[in-house]
Amino acid sequence: QVHLVESGGGSVQAGGSLRVSCAVSGHTYSFYCMGWFRQAPGKEREGVASIDSFGRTNYAQSVKGRFTISQDNAGNTLYLQMSSLKPEDTAMYYCAAALGRLCAARPDFDYWGQGTQVTVSS
After folding, report:
1. 80 φψ region: left (φ > 0), alpha (ψ -120 to 50), beta (else)
2. Residue in 66, 41, 56 with CA at minimum distance from that of residue 101
3. Cβ of 50: how many Cβ atoms within 10 Å?
4. Taking a C-beta distance cutoff of 8 angstroms, is the pair 46, 59 a contact?
């Protein structure tokens, strides 16, 4: 099984920055899509950013220019660097993996982490 563990969440003031991480373990695939999602109370889960095994990235319009998704060279850690944070960014952030597929295929994400809370205040 693939295991995903997020860390790095916390509280930050509006305009601040935070980096959340996702440790990835399990079987290695040549093709994959890794993504960050978030869910605030009373809201639907939304996709934030994704990156595939070729390094191609995609961002939700609401975070474009402020957030950066990346991974280490081995693909063992997924990162989300969040800058210029806004109160509306407050949510539980989850990392997820779609194995054997690229992000362009709009895959279902079938592996999920436990989430890490990000709270932005003014």
Report:
1. beta
2. 56
3. 25
4. no
Q: Which two tokens stand for residue 14?
A: 């509006």
Torsion of CA 50, 94, 21, 89, to 10 degrees: 80
Instruction: Match 């440790």 to its residue by tokens.
Output: 23
The token duo for 6 is 């997020």
> Any idea what the Cα angle at residue 37 is, between residues 36 and 42, rounded to 5°?
165
- Residue 87, classed as helix, strand or coil, is helix
pLDDT tens-digit readout, 69-120: 999 977 789 999 999 999 999 999 999 999 988 998 888 999 999 999 999 9
